[in-house]
Amino acid sequence: MHWKVKAAIQNTISIFPRSVSYSTYYRMQRLVGGLKRVNPVERFVAGVQTWRRIMKEGRDPADKVFFEVGTGTTPDVPLAFWLLGAKRTITVDVNPYLKGELVRETLEYIDANQNDVTALFGELLQHKRMADLLQFHRRGAFTLRGLLDLCSIEYIEPGDASRTGLPPRSIDFHTSYTVFEHIPPAVLAQILEEGNRIIRDDGLFVHMIDYSDHFSHSDTSISSINFLQYSDEEWAGYAGNRYMYMNRLRHDDVLALFQSAGHRILATTHSVDERSRDLLESGLFRLNAKFVTKSAEILSIRGSWIVSERTGRPQLISATQ
Question: What does the pLDDT look like over 49-69, one tens digit per residue?
Answer without folding.
Answer: 999 999 999 999 999 999 999
